[in-house]
Amino acid sequence: MSEQVEIDEDEAFGITDRLVAEVLAAVEAQDALAVDALLDPLHAADIAHLIEQIDSRDRRDLITVWKGGMDGDTLSELDENLREEIIALLAPAELAEAVRELESDDVVDLVEYLDDDQQEAVLGALDAGDRVVVEQALSYPEESAGRHMQSELVRAPEHWNVGDAIDYLRSEVVLPDQFYHVILVDARLKAVGYVTLGRILSHPRNTPLLELVEDTFRTFHVTQDVEEVAQAINHYHMITAPVVDDDDRIVGVITIDDAMAFLEEEAEEDLLRLAGVGEGSLSDRVIDTTKQRFPWLAVNLLTAIFASMVISLFEDTIAGLVALAVLMPIVASMGGNAGTQSLTVAVRAIATRDLTAANVWRVIRREVLVGLINGLIFAVVMGVVGILWFGSPMLGAVIGVAMVINMVVAGLAGTVIPVLLERFGIDPALASGAFVTTVTDVVGFFAFLGLAAAWLL
Amino acid sequence: MSEQVEIDEDEAFGITDRLVAEVLAAVEAQDALAVDALLDPLHAADIAHLIEQIDSRDRRDLITVWKGGMDGDTLSELDENLREEIIALLAPAELAEAVRELESDDVVDLVEYLDDDQQEAVLGALDAGDRVVVEQALSYPEESAGRHMQSELVRAPEHWNVGDAIDYLRSEVVLPDQFYHVILVDARLKAVGYVTLGRILSHPRNTPLLELVEDTFRTFHVTQDVEEVAQAINHYHMITAPVVDDDDRIVGVITIDDAMAFLEEEAEEDLLRLAGVGEGSLSDRVIDTTKQRFPWLAVNLLTAIFASMVISLFEDTIAGLVALAVLMPIVASMGGNAGTQSLTVAVRAIATRDLTAANVWRVIRREVLVGLINGLIFAVVMGVVGILWFGSPMLGAVIGVAMVINMVVAGLAGTVIPVLLERFGIDPALASGAFVTTVTDVVGFFAFLGLAAAWLL
């Protein structure tokens, strides 16, 4: 990183707060030369990051001062939520120049969620040929391999040898910016295998390419879910995933760097869904964030009211012994936490294919046992706390038994609920939390107050 | 996927439950030929996945029947928690043969957490040269780039041209299994740039390599955190990350497929930590899982008891109006959920470098505003519920105001606590949850019961 003095020495990537401040100062001074000098040495990913971190007024001023500086790579790197805002600030000629340099998958990624006017403006800037490719990709379903593949690839007839391939690559053909394989096709353009560039380079010119193909070659259909393809790329350590149409003809590739970005997004989505946060980013407006958070809170309110109804069944019991009101949240809270532990493990294991029909019963048994053992330990602790705090061994017994029941139920519900949701085609990351905490709240309050009503009064 | 009939047509990767059943049947019948026939066509990643999914007795039987089938790639793909178990089942000669075919980073990954005896057995199987390389890597800190880099790479003097590179690659040198760049070094072996294989292949033999170098070249130090390097690879869309020593001499590379696996692991770790689950996997034993889950539950018990103490301050108030005991969990629960939403967004944004000193105040202000708006909406809802259910407008007012207070506090605590923890060097994914729910429980109960004591009695 020696060439970029502004990057923090301890950090592997990213920009410093000082750099952000300097850019903002230069923007405020309307000093276009200084802005250029600060931004020019930066990678597009870092410029995008900087644009995301400043507020919307500063963004507008920056784009105005930094005339013509915005290129296609930087646009591609920008957070989806900001692209419309930024594209609206660009002059048509500036936008056209920026998108023309992009590969087809980056153009698709850029335009797929733009409104119609902006989409037309971008597509209109492309050459006719590129435009056809982009429109073809947009015709595939959202989140499909066809939508996200890069159509730029290098293919070769299967009967070629190393020399043929080198001569072809050295000819005047337009090559993709980055490519790692030459894909071999038969006379009907069906993909039959691929050869890494390293193997081509390290073999004599007369070696047939078919002798050098990788034995792990596999193809993906255009309608395959792109996240599945990304997971396969990770699972099989692939660099290039060839995408084929109904006739097994090669139509594009998904490369590992795009797959990596997909998996990162997907992991983030699962994390945020588990926490009841919809899609969203720090650069969203307050009103958008409020709307994203609202549904989960509304569901939680319903389940909380449901749990309160369980409590209200025991109003007389609580009136008879107020200590119950003091202690009851502990049982519900421990069950909720144990349930969240189990469901998080289950949701993740379902996503990574580690939890399957082959081991689901073993996993359920394990979670129940773990709940039982931890439940017994905490039952003893809480029994002692009950006795010491309220001087009542019987109250200690009630909270202890309720704790064991709720933690066993938590282990069971935390595993079974995500598995069932998955089987019914519902995203377990999105919906498990509400179901599991409802179960542990209801069971926790019911067990504790019910046992208290039976044993104490 | 046409060549692997056992793979589910709808799935991009993985193995079918039917295949697992067939393998287990063949193992039970001690039919070595059938086991071989089933496993041989599979990718090492799928075999490892299968071994992870069956129970430990079946694993032992499988290894016994599948004599000599276990290769280095399959060992590398296995879950860390299973490696000791499997390695202990292998005959020394079998183990030696398996590890000799691996690249240096895979050997390091395989042995770094083995006990000393097993580590010695694996290292002893290596050639002297390979052993030195592995031991050198093990001398770097855990989680450092030096520990996880692959030492096999292709470098070339900076004055070479395309023809020199091709002749060198075609000579008898041992090349890495996979490589994507030739790294240029000066006379002192200092890395000065790299060239993609695609560029070498597409240029005439007399083109100097220095004319073809990528303008985004950057290097990483051996002691740099490997996760940071993986994030940088994703951020800058790199395929190869060169690793250098104190003198800027190239000593290894981290490739994008390893970086992808690191980031996946890291995302999983963050997710599990947020849920209070330590490291662990589905193949852990009950006792190990119980131990991993225990600490977070113990912390949660303490915070729950603390919240109960707050409730006990208001025992007289509750005795005077039992409806308070019925409604109080709703306020705490809504605050807890809103707080979890804010903290999850904050923890993730800290991990991805989206939340920095440059925008922390704007994010805090936004979270508080979101909490205020949603709080006001739910305050109205709960006010109405309070009136309808208990016929008391004043009780409705108490729960409404308490709700607003707690959700504003949730937005504030959910952002400030992870930021502060990060600043003090504590992993926010690990510790934020306990702090934030303590705050929302205590504030929720205190606001609701305190207002009730002041306004209702």
Report on the structure:
The structure is a homodimer of 457-residue chains. Chain A is mainly alpha-helical and 457 residues long. Chain A is built from 21 helices and six strands. In chain A, the strands form two sheets. Chain A has a three-stranded mixed sheet with strand order 1-2-3. The longest helix of chain A has 31 residues, at 360-390. Chains A and B meet through α1, α3, α12, α13 and α14 of A and α1, α3, α12, α13 and α14 of B.
Q: Give the class-level CATH name of the largest domain in chain A.
A: Mainly Alpha
| Category by helix and strand content of chain A | mainly alpha
The name of the CATH architecture of the largest domain in chain A is Orthogonal Bundle
In the sheet with the most strands of chain A, the strands line up as 1-2-3
Overall outline of chain A: globular
Largest interface: A-B, 135 and 134 residues
Portion in helices of chain A = 55-70%
Oligomer: homodimer
Helical stretch count of chain A?
21
SSE series of chain A: HHHHHHHHHHHEHEEHEHEEHHHHHHH
Radius of gyration of chain A using CA atoms only: 29 Å
Low-confidence stretches of chain A: 1-9
Write the layout of secondary structure elements.
The structure is a homodimer of 457-residue chains.
Chain A: H1 17-28, H2 32-39, H3 44-53, H4 56-65, H5 72-77, H6 80-89, H7 92-100, H8 104-111, H9 116-124, H10 128-138, H11 145-148, E1 155-157, H12 162-170, E2 181-185, E3 191-196, H13 197-201, E4 220-221, H14 226-235, E5 240-244, E6 250-255, H15 256-274, H16 286-312, H17 315-320, H18 323-351, H19 360-390, H20 393-423, H21 428-455
Parallel strand pairs in A: 1-2, 4-5
Antiparallel strand pairs in A: 2-3, 5-6
